[in-house]
Design a protein that fits this description.
eleven-stranded parallel β-sheet; elongated; 9 helices; single chain; binds calcium ion; alpha/beta; about 475 residues; Spore Coat Polysaccharide Biosynthesis Protein SpsA, Chain A; binds uridine-diphosphate-N-acetylglucosamine; nine-stranded parallel β-sheet
């Protein structure tokens, strides 16, 4: 049986060099908070348990955490060793559990890298595995002091001698060991150093004294281990990802007509023969199906777009769209929306929290909220679901093959059964049975010659006023 694994994300620091009121891990990278990328990386690596150590601006950090991440408070930031100790004391982690320590400000670590460290730890029965990297400019980082391909100790930059500062191999911060090892050695470290902090990295020397095995796992892609400390670094980190992604996408069958205007994060899934034009931004866990064309400005966030679909100048958030769906221009699809195939959501249409069946059209100027629409429904221009009574939201249900004339108000809660038809301009307040016509339109009057007898056109100077 595989050992249970818990991740500890250190995120209590302020991030002074960001020059910000916002805690560092809340700054957005690829459209999402830094810490969200770390959570995703761990989750995709199959590590389901995560604890985040929060401190500075925790009231802002906590609401951004995934519901699966357990926050633990470190009231005073007394170093990485102290942060891990608090996590172990607060969250009940069994001694035999593997603990993977990472930071909230290293958003680039790939799931495969986390998996590699865990696999190495399990295979070699090491006491600890550290993720290391060789950097041309290692200033500021803890240096790896090696002995026979093992790590003898980590010396923090501040404490390092001139010759130790020559070492180019650094500690990325990602460390894997058991909870038992941390429980044994953390109480033994002191804050007797330049920073007056409890350095987590001091436990390595102690482990070695007890003949422990500490192995370095070296990573070659140094982009992954970039720690974000300054805004310039954040932007550089993003740009270097975009550059690499654009090249990769063009090679794998995605056409980017305006590569400089295109942005997508690392969690996007790509089909083939996708065409992107103008400014397109894809955020979070978004999937774009094969043969789909998107023209910008469009922003798609945590959504799935099926195959052969067309999105024109629209914003889509937390939604799932089927195949051959046409969206826009200027459509706003809000969280909780899903559609079948061959759906049309046209210009100036807003959809929220609704399910829309196959072949259904909402083509112009409509608001559909908290609704379920069946198949082959036609929603006429300007139709609005009146879903909110000032206190509560109410549902609208529309069956298959319903025809809603233009400019109807559907006052929820409402059930329009299959095959019904609503006359244009109606305000519908009660349920409509199947195959029936609902109409609230006042009867039209015609007064012959009324205009001629009652109304004279104004003179030009009067009209101008
Ligand atoms: C740390 C490592 C160093 C490594 C470097 C990589 C130690 C002692 N040093 O140094 O070897 O090369 O990261 O970037 O571990 N944090 C808390 N509570 C605290 C202190 C820090 O949660 O009391 C968090 C910070 O928010 C940050 C992370 O831990 O996310 C690292 O802390 P930081 O102070 O940046 O450590 P470094 O000095 O950079
Ligand atoms: Ca740092």
């Amino acid at each position: 049986m595989e050992q249970f694994c818990t991740a500890i994300i250190l995120a209590a620091g302020q991030g002074t060099r960001m020059n910000s009121r916002l805690p560092k891990v809340c700054h957005r990278c690829f459209g999402e908070p830094l810490i969200t990328h770390v959570e995703r990386g761990l989750d995709h690596a199959g590590i389901e348990n995560a604890i985040a150590v929060v401190g500075h601006g925790q009231e802002i950090v906590k609401p951004l955490l995934s519901p699966e991440t357990q926050p633990v408070e470190q009231p005073v930031q007394r170093g990485t060793g102290d942060a891990v100790r608090i996590a172990l004391e607060t969250a009940e982690i069994p001694d035999e559990s593997i603990v993977l320590i990472t930071y909230g400000d290293i958003p680039g670590i790939r799931p495969a890298t986390y998996q590699k460290i865990l696999a190495r730890f399990r295979k070699e029965q090491a006491d600890m595995v550290l993720l290391t990297a060789t950097l041309p400019d290692p200033a500021g980082y803890g240096r790896i002091v090696r002995e026979n391909n093992r790590v003898a100790k980590i010396i923090e930059h501040r404490e390092a001698s001139a010759s130790q500062r020559e070492i180019k191999e650094i500690n990325t911060g990602v460390i894997c060991c058991t909870a038992a090892v941390l429980r044994k050695y953390l109480p033994l470290i002191s804050a007797d150093n330049q920073a007056e902090e409890y350095y987590l990295t001091d436990i390595i020397e102690l482990l070695n004294r007890d003949s422990g095995i500490v192995l370095p796992e070296k990573i070659s892609d140094t982009w992954e281990i970039t720690g974000i400390n300054r805004r310039a670094q954040l932007i550089e980190f993003e740009q270097s990802w975009y550059k690499q992604l654009r090249k990769q996408l063009l090679n794998q069958g995605v056409t980017l007509h305006d590569p400089a205007l295109f942005k997508a994060g690392p969690w996007v899934n790509w089909g083939q023969d996708i065409v992107l034009e103008n400014s397109v931004t894809l955020v979070g866990e978004t999937t774009i199906g094969s043969g789909t064309r998107i023209t910008g400005p469009s922003r798609i966030e945590n959504s799935t777009i099926g195959e052969q679909s067309t999105i024109i100048s629209s914003q889509i958030t937390d939604a799932r769209l089927g195949n051959r769906v046409r969206v826009g221009p200027y459509c706003h699809i809000r969280p909780g929306t899903s559609t079948g195939n061959d759906v049309r959501l046209g210009n100036f249409v807003e959809i929220k929290m609704s399910r829309i069946g196959n072949n259904t059209n909402v083509s112009h100027l409509s608001y559909i909220g908290d609704a379920i629409l069946g198949e082959n429904v036609n929603i006429g221009a300007g139709t609005i679901t009146c879903n909110y009574d000032g206190y509560k939201k109410h549902r609208t249900t529309i069956g298959d093959n319903v025809f809603v004339g233009s400019n109807c108000e559907l006052v929820a809660p409402l059930n329009i059964q299959s095959g019904a038809m609503l006359g244009a301009g109606s305000t519908i307040t009660s349920d409509i049975p199947a195959d029936s016509l609902g109409l609230t339109r006042p009867r039209q009057e015609i007064k012959q010659n009324w205009v001629k007898e009652h109304w004279k056109p104004r003179k030009q100077e009067e009209t101008d006023q």
